[in-house]
Specification:
The chain is built from four helices and six strands. The chain is of the alpha+beta class and about 140 residues long. It has a six-stranded mixed sheet. Helix 2 packs antiparallel against helix 3 and helix 3 packs antiparallel against helix 4. About 15% of the residues have low confidence.
């Protein structure tokens, strides 16, 4: 009987001392996916408000171009991308081709990384939890000319 009580006590201590993060990733995973989904759906549908909801105020997108051995990089701020979405209208990607595979690669506290694969490009996304919500801080995109 003492062994059973000892075992139950030990099990209780182990369960109580598990880090809160052990149960947290499932809800964070869903929230990160929702944030990245708002980002790409905002782009596809020209819904700048939806896209803005996903962006951190310090958002920066790095686009790397070139397949001729000469890589070129450009940067786009959050304000610029929102202006582009507002002025360009819906994405020139037909709805039937609007692929959006979102993979959460890693979550470490209030920082996360995700991969967004669309029909024509792949975005590597860095997020942070800011004011209790996941926001996209940066995106790196590789385009081939």
């Amino acid at each position: 009987m003492k062994r059973i009580a000892f075992g139950l006590g030990l099990l209780t201590l182990l369960l109580l001392n598990l880090p809160a993060a052990a149960t947290k990733p499932a809800s964070d995973d869903a929230a990160i996916r929702a944030t990245v989904n708002d980002y790409i759906e905002g782009y596809y549908t020209a819904d700048a408000a939806r896209m803005e909801k996903a962006l951190h105020p310090h958002y920066l997108k790095h686009t790397i171009r070139g397949d001729d051995g000469q890589l070129r990089m450009s940067e786009t701020t959050g304000l610029q991308i929102l202006q582009d979405v507002r002025s360009a209208g819906p994405a020139p990607v037909p709805p039937s081709e609007q692929k959006k595979d979102i993979t959460v690669l890693d979550i470490s506290g209030d920082i996360a990384s995700a991969k967004l694969v669309t029909t024509y490009w792949t975005d590597y996304v860095t997020l942070t939890k800011w004011n209790g919500e996941w926001k996209i801080v940066s995106v790196v995109l590789r385009e081939v000319d």
